[in-house]
Write a structure and sequence with these properties.
The complex is a heterodimer of chains A (about 850) and B (about 450).
Chain A lengths: L2 H17 L5 H20 L7 H12 L4 H13 L7 E2 L5 E2 L14 H6 L2 H4 L2 H34 L2 H11 L2 H18 L1 H10 L14 H14 L6 H39 L25 H8 L6 H18 L5 H21 L2 H9 L3 E3 L14 H7 L5 H12 L5 H16 L2 H29 L4 H14 L3 H7 L1 H21 L1 H5 L1 H9 L5 H18 L58 H13 L14 E2 L2 E2 L27 H8 L3 H18 L24 H24 L16 H4 L13 H9 L9 H8 L3 E3 L25
Parallel strand pairs in A: 3-6
Antiparallel strand pairs in A: 1-2, 4-5
Helix pairs in contact in A: 1-7, 1-8, 1-9, 2-7, 2-10, 7-14, 9-12, 10-12, 10-14, 11-12, 12-14, 12-15, 22-23
Chain B lengths: L9 H4 L22 H19 L3 E6 L5 E6 L6 E6 L3 E6 L4 E7 L5 E6 L5 E6 L3 E6 L17 E4 L6 E4 L5 E5 L3 E5 L7 E3 L6 E6 L6 E6 L3 E6 L4 E8 L3 E6 L6 E6 L4 E5 L8 E3 L6 E6 L5 E6 L4 E5 L5 E5 L7 E6 L5 E6 L3 E6 L11 H16 L4 H8 L5 H26 L11 H4 L1 E5 L1
Antiparallel strand pairs in B: 1-28, 2-3, 3-4, 4-5, 6-7, 7-8, 8-9, 10-11, 11-12, 12-13, 14-15, 15-16, 16-17, 17-29, 18-19, 19-20, 20-21, 22-23, 23-24, 24-25, 26-27, 27-28
Helix pairs in contact in B: 2-3, 2-4
The chains are: A mainly alpha (about 850), B alpha+beta (about 450).
Organism (chain A): Fonticula alba (Slime mold)
Protein name (chain A): U3 small nucleolar RNA-associated protein 14
Keywords (chain A): Nucleus, Phosphoprotein
């Protein structure tokens, strides 16, 4: 429905209204109530938050008489339930208007409501005599109004075709439409001057009357308008513009209302005071204000009229006041300024345009993030593809319209969204059909049991996870350890895991040996020792426990033969045992570990004493490869034989691990520890000296100018056998001191002065600087990132054909002679991958 | 006697076809190529040098006009067709293939201010100082273009004021003109469909958005850029810059972005949704930028300036990647990218149109696949090592006219002096009392709604 057309029509009705005066007191009263309620509803519709659509509908209804039936029924519902507002008829037959309870009522009120009020009851004759003049005026206006409404309705039913034309006309001038649409409403409100007057007191200055629920509805409306403007994609342009205009109009009206609030309120107060002269003064049962209208009791017409009996002013005086009030009201109704109206239109249009260009955002983002783009762009969206089958169409189909989406949701909830799910569903169905009723019940029960078990286990775990008790944890640990397989058992089941565990244990062993944690190295033991506690039973038990743990941890373990490596478990004390490979050769009791000879360091030319070369190498190979026979050193002896080490080895029979008893080595080690170390690190000092020399040289390169030496013959005798004079010698000594001073200063000034093993070159090499980017280029966050990029070659000489092609392919490709058109649709899909690798 | 010989598999060493390269087995193990980076660096350096050696952007000068060329339009369906209008009212249609005029006519009395081609390519519209818009039929199916354009204007529209710019809608039969307001016309009607105005006294550029086709932008002499929407028939917003905007170009691939060529030697790219700050500022010209055009890929921008030079920018970078100039070329008033992204056409004061390559060193004509691979490799290497000082120095090296060089230096010195002064002031006043101003917001005076 086009409200602009209607508002224009309304204007004509206004004109007609002034021509046809008439008087019907009863309908006048009724209309007074309804128009009051309309006004009230506008101000007090806080309770029932209207939706945007509803609000708009109301606004339209407010100007539209055609919709009376719809709205009337809505109102009737409001009125009919006892709690709802609406005019009550009190015992004296007056219409009581409860301002606090009124629902929304469009202009002119509801004809059905009007009929409910008996005219005789509503107004006695005596009343009419008394208040004839005032009410005549009121009734006359409202009567005209209702008659117009009726005629309007009739006319509209007859000539619906006219409407379209009028709408078209009104389309032309949006600013005018804004004017009328805003104007109309207030014009109607203005017809009931008394209501107006009351509202001027009540509504306009609602801040002063906190009890009355006249929260700033206008603000709500404004915010709605704001929402509407922001998500106006659903609305069309006209609606947005209209709403913007309306809200602006309303805002202005509110502003002027606030301005006029003082004036109108003073007048209203005067009136009420003059009317209600005999009313006793009240104490502050609620917030104080100039015009103490009791919000809970509500202002009834009776209050006004009963007090009017003591009215000493003439009706004409009141008329004058009412007129002046109307003038003030009219002054508010100035149309929104065209500048403002245009601004609002522009804003709404700008928001719309923004929304529509934003639809291109995904396309632009995709285009910018594409790894390779080839222009002209190929649209591979569904509409541009040739499809080979219905299935292909179905697989790429995306539901777009609301109906399609609804259907999709329904299908998904039913599990019928695609072929696979349908097939799965059917299969399930078949399986279920194959079962008997008992089987099904059993299956269900089983499932329930499983679920219950799972749940209880989950709960148990959750509960236990929260327990902080150390004792509990200890018990749990023990339990876990009890359940654990021994290393040999584990090796039989899972050799890999066993090996890992073995490594872990080896680490623990090392740690224990290093820290001595359970042999008095721990904090607890140290405390005990410090305090000198005499061990009682308990303590002794604890200490035993400690030593047991220590023992256990220090026990060296290996995997048993059948598990893989060979060799049984050896304790630390197993003398002369070869643990794994040829890592350690233990010379025997008492001698302790003297030297570590890795297999690789064995001199190939070394003489192997007492056994053949072949057997020794065989044993070495066997030990190194670690397969088959266990190798035990029958007594590895180290002997100083010239410069050679002698390695004495015996090969025992293969197969049974630990078959041979290790024997004590009778030979002593001839080499001293010191000698060995010297021999091992021979030449290291040479290197250090060289390094220092190099460092000095580097330093000397950077020395400043040194004082020159005396030129021979100057200042002293020259020639064969001539000795420099003493003065020259002094000068030379001084020069040397200066040089030394300079050098030491230079040495101290180096950035590697305190780093014995480092030479830091502080000089800038100009030739090299050409080969480095001087600043980290944009787009890289670290230097290594950039280095990585340029150190990775892209050429075909360093890469496979395809890799090189891919690495050198230009990101944007265009073809000569092909016109590149701008995209026509934001929904265009671009094939290919993005830089981040997404399809 | 048995002779021992080396034997090898023929399949490993023989090429499958006679025109194939001999196979060169390579071991790709990086350990075996310790100098790969050094080698590629040298190749990059050489490629950069060669790129400079081969940089010959100028293709041809198209002479024929007897006055400066002030407006230009490309044909939407023909790469080789170019239409230009000059200061003496002459309209010319060019064939860029043989660089000849195929049709010319004195279309207007006084300047031809704007020219455009209808979106179906079948008519040319021109407007000028003589307060007229004229439409010329152009039968582009006709192979002989000399007879393709009608001798007499098909339609003429007259107004009270001279028109300053004209542009055709991408898809509808609408075109926009401007003088003191923007008029939207349908070529079947004698009066504009509607006028769009918002307080500007004189507009000199109007451009439809090629993607979001209902939006159009205009620039006015009161230093503003205005946006309009023809759906709501309403202006949208007005942006006032510090100086006048001479021309506007929409990014054909990014519906919401446009770039304004400004009198202050710079171009400003804006997102029409948020114009409180420029997205990018294109600097380098030393005089007013007179015209601007986006490449059809939306990745590059060409600008023509009053300093008699053309500059090519990457759309997202702040400085030009190349500058074109010739001794005889005077002030540039119009520039256009060709629709295949390969050429640039400019029109200048010296009555000539000039045809340039969009990439100065690009080889014209067919390129074999091996050549293509080699060029791609060289391009990639240049890109990779572009931050190396030597490579950068050579790649940036240009011979430019002394006037531009001097002006650029003067500008730089002035800018530095201003900056220094500002820094000194900042240093000697209470901290925060002289706030730093974002470069991209500096030139925006206001945005009205």
């Amino acid at each position: 429905m086009n409200n602009r057309g209607l508002s224009r029509r309304r204007q004509r009705h206004e004109a007609r209204k002034t021509q046809g005066p008439g008087f019907h007191a009863e309908s006048g009263a009724a209309h007074l109530s309804s128009s009051l309620s309309a006004k009230k509803a506008k101000k007090t519709s806080k309770k029932r938050e209207p939706s945007l659509a509803e609000l708009k509908q109301r606004m339209l209804n407010a100007f539209e008489n055609d919709d009376y039936d719809d709205d009337g029924s809505l109102l009737a519902a409001d009125v009919d339930d006892g709690a709802g507002g609406g005019p009550d008829v009190d015992d004296r037959g007056f219409v009581k208007i409860d301002l606090g309870k009124l629902g929304f009522n469009p202009m002119g009120g509801n004809p059905d409501d009007d009929e409910e009020i008996d005219e005789d009851e509503a107004f006695g004759e005596s009343d009419e005599d008394t208040y004839g003049d005032i009410l005549n005026t009121i009734a006359e206006r409202t009567k005209n109004f209702s008659r117009l409404n009726a005629s309007d309705r009739k006319r509209r039913h007859v000539a619906d075709d006219d409407e379209d034309d009028e709408e078209d006309d009104s389309d032309e001038d949006p600013s005018m439409a804004g004017y009328y649409s805003g104007d109309d409403e207030d014009e109607y409100a203005g017809t009931d001057s008394l209501a107006d007057m009351l509202m001027a007191g009540v509504g306009a200055s609602d801040d002063d009357y906190p009890g009355i629920q006249t929260d700033s509805d206008s603000e709500e409306e404004l915010s709605f308008a704001g929402e509407d403007a922001s998500d106006s994609d659903a609305e069309d342009a006209e609606d947005a513009a209209f709403l913007a205009e309306f809200t602006a109009r309303h805002r202005q009206a509110e502003g002027s209302a606030a301005r006029d609030a003082e004036v109108s309120r003073v007048q209203a107060v005067k009136l009420v005071q003059s009317i209600d002269g005999a009313q006793p003064e009240q104490t502050e049962a609620y917030a104080e204000s100039e015009m103490n209208l009791q919000p809970s009791a509500g202002l009834s017409l009776r209050d006004l009229i009963s007090s009017a009996s003591r009215l000493d002013t003439t009706a004409s005086g009141m008329k004058g006041q009412l007129k002046s009030l109307k003038k003030i009201r009219d002054a508010e109704l100035a149309p929104v300024h065209s500048v403002e109206a245009e601004r609002l239109t522009r804003e709404a249009a700008y928001n719309m345009a923004k929304d529509s260009v934003t639809e291109w955002q995904p396309f632009v983002a995709r285009l910018n993030s594409m790894e390779f783009v080839s222009f002209p762009l190929m649209d591979t969206s569904v509409s541009n593809q040739r499809l080979n089958s219905i299935n292909e169409l179905a697989s790429t189909h995306e539901s777009e319209t609301a109906l399609e989406k609804d259907i999709q949701v329904l299908l998904e909830t039913a599990g019928l969204q695609n072929e696979a799910s349908i097939a799965a569903l059917e299969e399930d169905d078949d399986q279920m059909k194959a079962l008997t009723a008992e089987e099904m019940a059993e299956r269900r029960a089983q499932l329930a049991r499983m679920r219950h078990l799972l749940l209880s286990n989950e709960l148990k775990q959750a509960r236990q996870a929260k327990i902080k008790s150390k004792a509990f944890r200890r018990v749990k640990k023990r339990e876990r350890e009890r359940k654990e397989l021994s290393i040999d058992e584990m090796a039989a089941v899972d050799p890999q895991a066993a090996r890992e565990r073995l490594e872990r244990m080896e680490m623990q062993r090392l740690e224990e040996r290093m820290t001595q944690r359970h042999r008095g190295g721990g904090k607890w033991s140290r405390e005990m020792a410090k305090r000198g506690v005499r061990p009682n039973e308990l303590l002794r038990g604890a200490m035993d426990e400690q030593s047991r743990i220590s023992e256990e941890l220090r026990t060296k373990r290996t995997l048993s033969l059948d598990a893989g490596l060979g060799g049984g478990s050896y304790s630390d004390e197993d003398d002369g045992a070869l643990s794994d490979g040829l890592d350690v050769v233990r010379p025997g009791h008492g001698a302790g570990l003297r030297a570590v000879i890795a297999g690789a360091t064995l001199d190939p030319g070394a003489a192997i004493g007492q056994s053949s070369e072949a057997s020794a190498s065989r044993s070495l190979a066997a030990a190194l490869s670690g397969r088959g026979s266990a190798v035990a050193a029958g007594g590895a002896s180290l002997d100083d034989h010239g410069d050679e080490f002698l390695l004495d080895m015996d090969v025992t029979g293969g197969g049974n691990g630990g078959g041979a008893e290790p024997q004590a080595n009778p030979f002593a080690i001839a080499l001293d520890q010191k000698d060995l170390v010297e021999r091992a690190f021979e030449g290291d000092d040479v290197f250090e000296a060289d390094f220092q020399k190099e460092k000095d040289h580097d330093m000397e390169l950077n020395l400043p100018d040194l004082p020159p030496a005396d030129v021979p013959g100057w200042g002293s005798w020259g020639g064969e056998g001539a000795r420099p004079s003493q003065a020259a010698q002094r000068r030379e000594a001084k020069r040397q001191r200066t040089i030394e001073k300079i050098k030491s200063a230079a040495r101290a000034g180096r950035s590697d002065a305190n780093l014995a093993h480092v030479i830091i070159n502080d000089r800038v090499n100009k030739k090299q600087s050409k080969l480095h980017a001087d600043i980290l280029p944009h787009g890289f966050s670290t230097r290594s990132q950039y280095d990585n990029l340029i150190s990775r070659p892209v050429g075909a000489a360093f890469n496979t054909q395809t890799a090189a092609e891919r690495a050198t392919r230009p990101r944007v490709m265009t073809k000569a002679g092909h016109i590149i058109e701008a995209p026509r649709s934001a929904k265009m899909t671009l094939p290919g991958r993005t830089i981040s690798g997404k399809e | 006697m048995k002779i021992r010989m080396l034997s090898r598999d023929a399949a490993q060493t023989t090429r499958p076809r006679s025109n194939d390269l001999p196979r060169l087995p390579r071991n790709l193990d990086p350990e075996l190529h310790p100098f790969s980076q050094a080698r590629e660096y040298t190749r990059a350096l050489n490629a950069t040098k060669l790129e400079r050696v081969f940089a010959k952007p100028f293709v041809a000068a198209l002479d024929g006009h007897r006055d400066g060329v002030y407006c230009m339009a490309r044909h939407p369906n023909h790469l080789s067709a170019m239409i230009s209008g000059s200061g003496d009212g002459e309209l010319r249609v060019w064939n860029l293939i043989n660089q000849k005029t195929v049709w010319s006519h004195t279309a207007h009395k006084g300047f031809v201010r704007g020219v455009c081609v209808a979106n179906d390519g079948r008519s040319i519209l021109s407007c000028g100082d003589d307060k007229a818009i004229r439409m010329w039929n152009f039968d582009y199916d006709n192979k002989n273009w000399a007879t393709a354009v009608t001798e007499e204007a098909e339609s003429v529209w007259l107004d009270d004021e001279g028109f300053t710019s004209i542009d055709y809608h991408r898809s509808d039969q609408l075109f926009a003109t401007c003088n003191s307001s923007v008029q939207i016309w349908n070529y079947e009607r004698s009066n504009p469909l509607f006028n769009l105005s918002w307080g500007a006294d004189s507009l000199h550029c109007v451009r439809f958005n090629p993607t979001e086709t209902h939006v159009l932008a205009s620039a006015g002499s009161d230093r503003m850029i205005m946006l309009y929407d023809i759906r709501t028939k309403s202006p949208l917003t007005k942006l006032t810059l510090a100086m006048k905007t001479n021309a506007i170009a929409w990014n054909p691939m990014q519906a919401f972005n446009f770039t304004a060529a400004n009198e202050d030697h710079n171009c400003y790219t804006f997102d029409m949704r948020n114009m409180s700050s420029a997205l990018n500022i294109l600097k380098d010209h030393v005089s007013a930028v007179m015209d601007i055009d986006y490449s059809p890929t939306g990745k590059e921008i060409v600008t023509g300036s009053y300093d008699c030079s053309i500059r090519l920018f990457r759309a997202n970078e702040g400085h030009s990647r190349d500058i074109y100039h010739t001794r005889r070329m005077q002030r540039i008033f119009c520039v256009r990218f060709s629709q295949d992204n390969k050429y640039v056409v400019t029109g200048s004061d010296d009555t000539n149109l000039r045809l340039w390559k969009a990439r100065a060193a690009e080889k014209l004509g067919p390129v074999s696949s091996r050549e293509r691979a080699a060029l791609n490799y060289a391009d990639t290497l240049r890109g990779r090592f572009k931050h190396m000082p030597e490579v950068r120095r050579i790649a940036r090296h240009r011979h430019i006219p002394k006037a531009i060089h001097t002006a650029a230096r003067t500008k730089r010195e002035m800018k530095e002096a201003i900056q220094r002064k500002e820094d000194n002031m900042r240093e000697n006043s209470r901290s925060g009392s002289i706030p730093r101003e974002a470069e991209r917001k500096k030139n925006i005076v206001s945005q009205s709604r």
